[in-house]
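Marked as duplicate of an earlier ticket. Keeping the data here for the record.
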Amino acid sequence: MKRLLLSTLTLSLAAAFAVPAMAADAAPAVAAAVPATAAAPAGVISGIDTQYIDNSVRPQDDFFTHLNGKWLKETEIPGDRSSWGTFMKLREDTTPQLLAIIETAQKDTGAKTGTEAKKIGDLYASFMDDARREALGYKPLTGELSRIRTLKDKKGIPALAAHLAKIGVASPYGIYVGQDMRESTRHATYISQSGLGMPDRDYYLKADDAKLAEIRAKYQVHVEKMLTLAGEKNAAAQAKAIVDFETDLAKVQWTKVENRDPVKRYNKMTVAELTKLAPGYDWKGALAAAGVGNKIDTIIVNQPSYFTGFDALLAKTDLATLKSYFEWQLLREYAPYLSKAFVDENFAFYGTALTGVAEQRPSWKRGVATVEDTLGEALGKLYVAEHFPAERKARMEQLVKNLIIAYGESIDNLDWMSPATKKEARAKLAKFTPKIGYPDKWRDYSRLTIKRDDLVGHDAADGQRLLPQHDERDRVPGRDPAAAVLRHARRRRGQLRGDRRRDWPRNRSRLRRQGQPVRWRRQFARLVDGRRPHRLQGPHRQAGQAVQRLRATARLQRERRTDAGRKHRRQRRPVDRLQGL
């Protein structure tokens, strides 16, 4: 079972539906979601807001637009966002609350060293110390740059790539551990294609797309500027070599369509078989450096042909280009935490050129995001104490309990399902584990050391440098960070490892800036057989979820009807227990 990672966004969402006063402020005009069998408690209102319903669109023609049409027409995308929806609105609304908590921790001079409150305050203070960041420039990366620049031969690349992956820097492949897709009771080690500085191979290869061609040109200029800021004298030639290398890398990578096939992506091999696939690379050394060499017998290779192509590309690429490539990946990853010149140039490409965002968010918001991404559950614990009383969680747990009861009644009332099948369905339903608001056991950050005067060089217990996670707009949306097995205490909420993120279709239910090719967000990623599920957003998310559940039930009924000839007919789920929606 994957560990629950706290998101204060989830907490605020639960609180919004759990507190009548809060819901009343957000939704002055409401209507009952479903007929109630008993009078609702005083002060309890429906979770469905009717003020944005567009009655010019019939619900049977386009249910989503019927519910959200007015909101889509009237809502403006904020200047510092490329898209906008209810989750983003909730995050924006909770950010001032998080800031107040963080600033209290920052100003607490009596906080003991090593406490979570002290770490929160010190991390935020280090992010907001603009004077020190300006004075340092790229000096915090001197040691890592030296490691790359002194690489003597290609034999050192596996160890270098593993080290960089541990501090969040991309390489041409990513090694990660996850649930075995064919044996859910076990974890497995995966290896997947990675290493591009732009979101997808199409950005490098599609010659018939004028917008992508423009972005490619801007990308090479951006790489050159970043290398120049890092003191490189021949930045223009290095930038061209880097983009050419990434283009060749893109040519051997799998397409989005290929990556959507979970069967095709599942290729379990021994390390010896992986070595035969790409014999020119020291895979035993690479896996050992990643921390799994003596712990696994097999590894799941997501794109076998890619690794054969990568092996050939590595053999023909000169060492100087490879060192420039890794240097660029290092600068790209750490740019948001260096001096203003790096921050601005990084945003100019990854913020404006790629996503169409003209305004960078103020530094305090980026600082809050950094704290939340790095010490999410520590900050969430303080948030819970101030903004999410136990009674609100209890109310949400009761709501979910009612939904489970209704689901069970739906199973019992299915005339096409045999008693034996109903028993199995009931057993499966009983295994459902609700997770509301926050975990029963909080994440332990004791191994993480935060230094108030060192934003980039925070340490984990084993001595590895620990970079706080990026603001979601400061990175390439959908880029694989070449996540290694050891990620210390900085696993980002909702972050999927591997290139699966870039393969999901965009969510049509959020407003987006027109004409920009990249608009999705990592925090909504959820893996379902290699695809991102359709998710209704907008101010009527609750209604959309109810409809999705009904549709899912209908689909299940159609799929499970036997060939004996039962006629198709729609089944309706009992709704008398759904008052909480």
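See parent ticket for discussion. The beta strands are 83-84, 173-180, 183-193, 268-270, 298-301, 449-451, 454-459, 465-466, 511-512.
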